[in-house]
Amino acid sequence: MGEQARIAVIGAGWAGIAAAVTCADAGAAVTLFEAGRGAGGRARSVNIAGRTLDNGQHILLGAYHETLALMRQVGADPQRMFSRRPLCLLEGDTFQLRLPNLPAPLHLAAGLLGAHGVSWREKIRTALWMQGIKWRKFRLDQTQSVAEWLDAAGQTGALRRHLWEPLCLAALNTAPEQACAQLFAHVLRDSLGSPQREATDLLLPRVPFGELLPEPALAWLAQRGADLRLGQRVRQLAGTRIDDEDFSAVIVAVAPHHLSRLLPAVPDTFSYEPIATVYLDYGAQTVLPFPLRHLGAGTAAWAVDRGQGMIGCAISGHGDWETLADNALAARMADALGLGAPHWQQVIREKRATFSARPGLRRPDYRTDHPCVFLAGDYTWADYPATLEGAVRSGRRAAFAAIQASKRPA
Ligand SMILES: Cc1cc2nc3c(=O)[nH]c(=O)nc-3n(C[C@H](O)[C@H](O)[C@H](O)COP(=O)(O)OP(=O)(O)OC[C@H]3O[C@@H](n4cnc5c(N)ncnc54)[C@H](O)[C@@H]3O)c2cc1C
Fold first, then answer.
1. Which of 42, 243, 251 to mutate to test the pocket of ligand 1 (most atoms within 8 A of CB)?
2. Which regions of the chain carry the CATH code 3.90.660.20?
3. Distance 213 CA to ligand 1 centre (A)
4. What's the pLDDT at 300?
5. What does the H/E/C string look like for the chain?
6. Quick one: which atom of ligand 1 is closest to the CA of 14?
7. Is ligand 1 within 6 A of the CB of residue 395?
8. Which of 295 and 329 is assigned the larger pLDDT?
9. 36 lines ligand 1 (CB under 6 A)
10. pLDDT digits (tens, 9 = 90+) for 342-382
11. What is the pLDDT at residue 291?
């Protein structure tokens, strides 16, 4: 690299962490600015009433290759930190779909044909439809919503209610009537449609979110001499100058609603969707039959058994739940779970959890008007909705570009 590149990364969410690690690994001197006291951004640990919780219940998939690789790179072992389970969707006695331990795509075919609560006619029609999507390489009409896509395909039965719609809400955090069919198809391509069976596995964290990546990554960066400036919000960016410091390149890895302050030329054109996580503690003896449960079409919520009797219920996207007070929302989740009243409860609401993944959404390019300033963040990874994997991939991409730009003569 000749003279050592000095690269600033603004924001220590998963995109900023990925960018900082990639730059440091390439030999750059990295300065990481983070407004919050800790790293992790929208996927971080929080301490509430003496308990370490996550700011929101997250679910990862085996398809998150770059995320898992980044964890390994900084010394966090995904094998130990996740409970890896073959995909299984249960909804009381009404619906069951389990993917068996067979090579892809046999696992999907067997899972679909063996699904409980779905007619044979619907199973066969769905298998043919999915094959057709594969043949078309998951390319769809960009303007279509998920609901329109499912309507056009005659997907109006049990699989729509218990599989496609809940998956759409979980992955895109946007109601099927408003969600972009093409983005949903990309998620299906890299999970159910992947040639690797493991891509559909559910990865349920066994440890608080901070331990999965933010904490080991900060330790890894510190060992490599990175300058970690936690609790320092960047207020002004002029070219590659932050306050009175000059950098060879800058990666801006903040959420889109924080961007206009730093880069007024990139307006925030997104609308946002909330997520609430309701933690219910039932005591160590309580265990769900499967660690992930969809709580029913009415609630659009998933319950995750976090071990030791703690259940995390994630409620995705706008809905009538937003008008409920915390106690009423917790009571609604407890009702849906059918386990009675918990010993302890806590509600965490993230009002701008993700951008709304609507059809025809314009996503900013990761390159900016300045040749040495780049964007990273889930919203810049146009192939995906707002996900950890999109954030990590975007961070890696911005890092490679910043390293290249640092090599060019000024
Ligand atoms: C409750 C919830 C549940 C979710 N569930 C899932 C899930 O199950 N699976 C999944 O894949 N994804 C999920 N997501 C989405 C996922 O968390 C995000 O896509 C991802 O964390 C975005 O990372 P990011 O680095 O792009 O942005 P952010 O996490 O927003 O990071 C941006 C960082 O920049 C910092 N910052 C902002 N301005 C400045 C400034 N001026 N100076 C310095 N620092 C600044 C912020 O403090 C923040 O730390 C969920 C999100 C939420 C909120």
1. 42
2. 272-355
3. 13
4. 72
5. CCCCCEEEEECCCHHHHHHHHHHHHCCCEEEEEECCCCCCCCCCEEEECCEEEECCCCCEECCCHHHHHHHHHCCCCHHHHEEEECCEEEECCCEEEECCCCCCCHHHHHHHHCCECCCHHHHHHHHHHHHHHHHCCCCCCCCCEHHHHHHHCCCCCHHHHHHHHHHHHHHHCCCCCCCEHHHHHHHHHHCCCCCCHHHHCEEEECCCHHHHCHHHHHHHHHHCCCEEEECCCCCCEECCEECCEECCEEEECCCHHHHHHHCCCCCCCCCEEEEEEEEEECCCCCCCCCCEEECCCCCCEEEEECCCCEEEEEEECCCHHHHCCHHHHHHHHHHHHCCCCCCEEEEEEEEEEEECCCCCCCCCCCECCCCCEEECCHHHCCCCCCCHHHHHHHHHHHHHHHHHHHHCCC
6. 25
7. no
8. 329
9. yes
10. 999 999 999 999 999 999 999 999 999 999 999 999 999 99
11. 87
Whether the CB of 388 sits within 6 Å of ligand 1 = yes
pLDDT of 387 strictly over 60: yes
What tens digit of pLDDT does each residue of 212-267 get? 999 999 999 999 999 999 999 999 999 999 989 999 999 999 999 999 999 998 88
Ligand 1 pocket test target in 388, 389, 396 with most atoms within 8 Å of CB:
388
Q: Which of 45, 254, 272, 355 to mutate to test the pocket of ligand 1 (most atoms within 8 A of CB)?
A: 254
**Arithmetic mean of pLDDT over the chain:** 94
Q: Please tell me the residue having the least CA distance from ligand 1 atom 12.
A: 387
pLDDT tier, 299 (very low <50, low <70, confident <90, very high otherwise): low
Distance (Å) from CA 80 to ligand 1 centroid: 24
Supply the pLDDT for residue 86.
Answer: 93
How many angstroms is it from 356 CA to the middle of ligand 1?
14
Ligand 1, atom 1: nearest CA belongs to which residue?
56
What number does the ligand 1 atom closest to the CA of 59 have?
8
| Fold (topology level) of 6-48+59-78+207-270+361-407 | FAD/NAD(P)-binding domain (3.50.50)
Q: Which atom of ligand 1 is nearest to the CA of 60?
A: 9
- Pocket test of ligand 1: the residue of 58, 252, 306 to mutate, having most ligand atoms within 8 Å of its CB, is 58
Please tell me the predicted confidence (pLDDT) of residue 69: 98
What pLDDT does residue 276 have?
A: 96
What pLDDT, on a 0 to 100 scale, did the predictor assign at position 2? Answer: 63
CATH of domain 272-355: 3.90.660.20
- Report the atom number in ligand 1 closest to the C-alpha of 15: 25
pTM, entire model: 0.97
User: Where are the CATH 3.50.50.60 domain residues in the chain?
Assistant: 6-48+59-78+207-270+361-407
